[in-house]
Amino acid sequence: MRIFIAGGTGFIGKHLVRRLEEEGHTVLVLTRSDKGPESPATNVRSIQGDPTKPGPWQEAVADSDIVINLAGATIFSKWNSKQKKLILESRVKTTENLVQALRTRPEKKVTLLSASAIGYYGFRQDEVLDEGSSPGDDFLASVTRAWEREALRAQGKGVRVVLTRFGIVLGEKGGALGIMAVFFKLFIGGPLGQGRQWFSWIHIRDLVEAILFLIQHKEISGPANVCSPQPVRNKDLAKALGRALHRPSFLHAPAFAVRLLLGEFGNLVLNGQRVIPRRLLQSGFAFQFPEIRNALLDILSH
What phi and psi values does residue 132 have, to the nearest 5 degrees? Predict the structure, then answer.
């Protein structure tokens, strides 16, 4: 298949491109620079362009069988009004331009897999959340609602739209784990706040395989939570990470200190969500790393 990826040079994108290359697909990676993907494979090539602006790059979208949207400014930063605007607009404008470029192809069903996030559900303490749960009303929830609303416009062109709501992605050389591990290696790691908040996560290899699964299973459309079926409390995550790194994990970071350091973004790590990937499980997807302990051991062994 011919697969177009926006955001293919990021942490998730690099892993996904490598896997699609192994499967023999033709992969087109949109990049702002003239430096192409790291892979020298002939079936992976770069297309230069800014996804937040219309341009010639959109012609490649129109000829693709699968369009994957992973683009968006990082949320791992201290938020201010400028950063919030960037987080929102980078997602909405990219999705708008991708949908605009899609065209109806009667001879073949086109699929748009558009990244979203479990932040859609807001903060609900111990409530178990699945794809049928209502959205939250905080900043990230409003961003994901706008993001998804733009992607769903593609349905009007006869496109199958899958909204991949990612949990916190754990993997080597990037993602949230790279940030957390630094504190443990300095012997200052531990739970955040009271440590009772839920942490819905996914191993990068499971995330990539879930995307391939959703590409293949054309009967699936709409939202799909892409996270481990076994979310953990923050204190249990800290304990598992401490064991994997052979470091202590008893130093609590007070909630006020987290908020002082991270600002509004601190609410994300101090509250969290308890999310279940019900649609993936019901469709028969098998996770390689459903448990946090084995996931961390695998990642850190690399």
Answer: -90, -5
For residue 262, give the amino acid letter.
L
Dihedral class, residue 193 (left if φ above 0, else alpha if ψ from -120 to 50, else beta): left
Among 179-188, 193-202, 237-246, which range has the highest average pLDDT? Answer: 193-202
Domain count, the chain: 1
Domain assignment present for 223: yes
Residue 239 lies in a domain: no
Q: In the sheet where 66-69 sits, what is the strand order?
A: 44-48, 26-31, 2-6, 66-69, 111-117, 160-166, 222-226
Query: Residue 115 pairs with which residues in a beta bridge?
Result: 164
43: domain CATH number is: 3.40.50.720
**Beta-strand runs (E) in the chain:** 2-6, 26-31, 44-48, 66-69, 111-117, 128-129, 160-166, 168-171, 174, 198-199, 201-203, 222-226, 232-233, 274-275
Is 297 part of any domain?
A: no
| Within a domain: 157 | yes
Q: What is the pLDDT of residues 207-256, one digit of tens each?
A: 999 999 999 999 999 999 999 999 999 899 888 888 888 787 677 777 87
For residue 86, give its domain range: 2-169+201-227+275-287
Helix ranges restricted to H, 102-229: 139-152, 175-185, 204-216
